[in-house]
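anyone else get weird line breaks when pasting these?? whatever heres mine. first is seq + tokens for prot A
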Amino acid sequence: MHRLLRGEVLMFGGFAVAAVATIFLVMPSSAAPVSAEWTVLPSGPLGPADRDLLVKVRQAGLWEIPVGRYAQERAASQRVKDVGMHLVEDHSKLDVVTRQYAAKLGVPLPDQPNPDQQSWMAQLAAENGPAFDRDFANLLRAAHGKVFTVVAGVRAGTRNSEVRKFAQQAVTVVMKHMTLLESTGLVDHNALPEPPTPSATPPAPAAVETRRQP
């Protein structure tokens, strides 16, 4: 009887160890919260911020591509026309990449811009000449600043290697477009949100005294 109990205990212990090992294999890293919003993939844990990045980049292209085409017809400045052309070309390529990553990671994407973006499109569609140029440069520069903070934040902290690669590509495009829009000379930087207030500077590490070897 005692031998049987010992055998059962050993068998149960083996199952317990296997179960614990399985749990650790499927859980995200301790740095990532464990919830139903997280999906464990071969490329690493995929969380809400990762999905939101793909959605926001997709939506950026859904309004910036048509607005870039508006610039070809409505802008007074040749520089604005050129910037619009770059936006169309770059976002068309980035949209293909976005949809590829979304399909690989199982992230559903929207098929239309968000309500704010739709209102900006309607505003620009009703303008021509210098008024179009001014609003084109400022609306798009402000929008790129917002999406830049999303892309940079996800790039800095994502646990998923595929999202990390995608964010790297996206942040390059966003930085390029901010620079292009500023090159029009029409961006009102005073109207942009102020940078966040820096946190307190951590104390410097204590100096380490170097001792000479005897």
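and prot B, same format (seq, then tokens)
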Amino acid sequence: MTVVEEFRIAVAAAGVDLAAPELLPERLARACAQVLPVDGAGICLFFAEDRRLPLGASDPAASTAERLQFTAGSGPCLSAHAEGRPQVADEVTIRSRWPAFYDGLVTRTPIRGIISLPLGDELRDIGALDLYTVPPNDVTALSLADALDISAEVTSTFRAHGQATRRHSDTPVWLDAPSAERRSIVWQAMGFLNSRLDVSSSDALAILRAHAYGSGEDLDQLARRVVDGEIPLERLALDHDSAS
């Protein structure tokens, strides 16, 4: 049996507990972690510059790693997206290339290796698959050819389900994944800073990232606090100006 055939069986099995169509990305992430020699997986889209939308993760550590990359604004997945090629990073590489991301990764997760693959076809330039390893497992255990075969199957599955389950006739249901809904809070918080502090979207995101990093929070957590009014926007601006 090929790895793609094993993957299809694993996706079908995951559908027993994750039957809702918007949970397709989580089913795919779990299947990736099951059939490949990795300890976790996550799938995301980039719908604009620096706008990363998580769709699904295999487990809490993989979900945390995604949020930490987004908070730091750097990491293997962002580089895979920017460069359009796979990134294979062991702990030494992560520490040297993406130190801000590394600091959070080693303090908040057991993950020490990441393989990030851009997705292809209609998800080319916007989709990515992250695969995570935990010691004693490492990135050298994974066949890149197998990983690329699985990433192609992920894209194919998204395409098939997107055509079959479109909502409002224009977007596939799996874009309503719970993790994507949670990330939308960040865009709301950016909008608050846009309108009340008269800053650009890129500056608003930079302000939020700086405060999240300084406070040890991830960006999604901070955004929720901003939207709920727990953190005055003026305080964020002052903290940003002081650090500049």
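btw re prot B: Residues 144-164 form the longest helix (21 residues). Residues 3-174 form a domain with the Beta-Lactamase fold (CATH 3.30.450.40).
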